[in-house]
Amino acid sequence: MSIAALEQFYDKVRSDANLESEAATALAEGASAVVELAAREGFDFSEDELIIALAQHTASSGELSDADLDLVAGGIVSPPRMKDSVKGARFS
């Protein structure tokens, strides 16, 4: 995982007011925009890694900001359900 790169990007964002503004705008647009901004700044991490880091941050702080919640809320895809008719078994 590139969590270290994500942490380094976060540190850079916190130390540069212009980049912090760009990151806030990117965060409002979604995880892919944050990943693109980070890549432009020389940091390599995936959308999934960003979502994991946000979830870990939530676990330690107990809350997500509205922007963080927007990123995480649409990020999980449920596996397809099996048909109930498979050898009489029922899946839920």
Fold blueprint:
Layout: H1 3-15, H2 17-29, H3 31-40, H4 47-61, H5 66-73
Helix pairs in contact: 1-2, 2-3
Describe the structure.
The chain has 92 residues and is mainly α. The protein is 64% helix and 0% strand. It is built from five helices and no strands. It has helices spanning 3-15, 17-29, 31-40, 47-61, 66-73. The protein starts with a helix and ends in a 19-residue tail after the last helix.
Write out key terms for the chains shown.
mainly alpha, 92 residues, 5 helices
What value does the Rg take, in angstroms? 17 Å
Outline: globular
Instruction: Output mean pLDDT.
Output: 74
Largest sheet: none
Task: Report the portion of residues in β strands.
Answer: under 5%
Number of strands: 0
How helix-rich are the residues, as a percent range? 55-70%
Query: In sequence order, what are the helices and strands, one letter per element?
Result: HHHHH
As for the number of domains, it is 1
Number of helices: 5
The end-to-end span amounts to: 32 Å
- SS class: mainly alpha
- Unreliable stretches: 75-92
